[in-house]
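Entry under discussion copied across for reference:
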Amino acid sequence: MGFQFGRHNLLMLISLMIFSGTMLSVSSCLPEEQENLIEHAAHDPASYGDWRSKSLTERIATAPDFVADFMMKFNQMDEQFSAYKTRPYMPDAAFVEELDALVKAWPREIHEMLEDNLVGIFFVSDMGSSGFATWMANADESYRGFILIDEQAIVQTANAWVSGRAASAFRLDPGDSLVIMMEEPENNTLARAAEFILLHEIGHQLAFAYGVHALLGEGAPPSDHPNISSYPFFAGRWQGPSNFQAMPVDSTALAYYKLPFYPRFETDKLPFSKAVELYTGLPNTSYPTLLAGSGHAQYFAESFASYVHCIVQQRPYHIQLFRQGRQVLALDNGILGEGGAFDRAFMALFIATKGDMPTDVSMP
């Protein structure tokens, strides 16, 4: 089985049904397993006790048993993940101490944006993906949720992890490599890898909590999926209903749509020559990374994580491609380039206003 990066879409149909006020009319049509997940303790904020009184770092913990149980049952609904037996996990104290320090250093506005929306950041083992963000079906009108980080996501240092993620979509011949440096050697730690994974998943959480795009979900009525272009971050750049069918407008950007990161089968990977082609064209798009082009929700999450990493924290994100051991291309994360101007301006305002942005906001 392939280990995937970040899953957050599969359960959105459940959440969307609740938040759109149509649960009573549709829940009887759901399979029994999905109905059980809607009512699962993990989807009830009350299960987490007095979580609002905790700081963001105090919410970083081993997963409660009922959260691990929820994840295991969620995986059982998908054949690809049904063999995973998720269980609680907690890294060693030194790792947690370093991650706590990194999170504490985030801008105060990010902490405040998450105060009433994120009940916990939990560690699990045997989840099947590096990160997972979900929103609670029983959270009244608020988009509250939790984030899971898998043990297997934090066994590599930051540079090894991000390089592996990027290379996972391509078939590498001997002498081919895709190398990304997102931390200087002295900072290339396991906790720094976990921090970027966490920033990506928090990007998803904030997108739903603050209406950056609509809830995701297949099979929902069209009224629940207004055109993606009605959302300021995507206006003029993406088109179609704001679910899994939203697509980039520009043909250059479309080449990055639904790339096979962490594919289930090796045969689904693309030849490495395609990696050279796509990375060569990346500066002509607004994408910070290749993963950003794979879907509109991934686009926002990657832009958020890249903005915090590269702009706020002033850390590197340098990409190199080698063929037969020879460097053929070098570039930086797209958030730093001309194509990232809109995203930089949007993220600066999004964070400064703590998500309370005018709907007619104008960006460069």
Observations:
- Residues 155 and 190 are 7 Å apart (CA to CA).
- The chain has twelve helices and twelve strands.
- Residues 1-30, 217-222 have pLDDT under 50 and may be disordered.
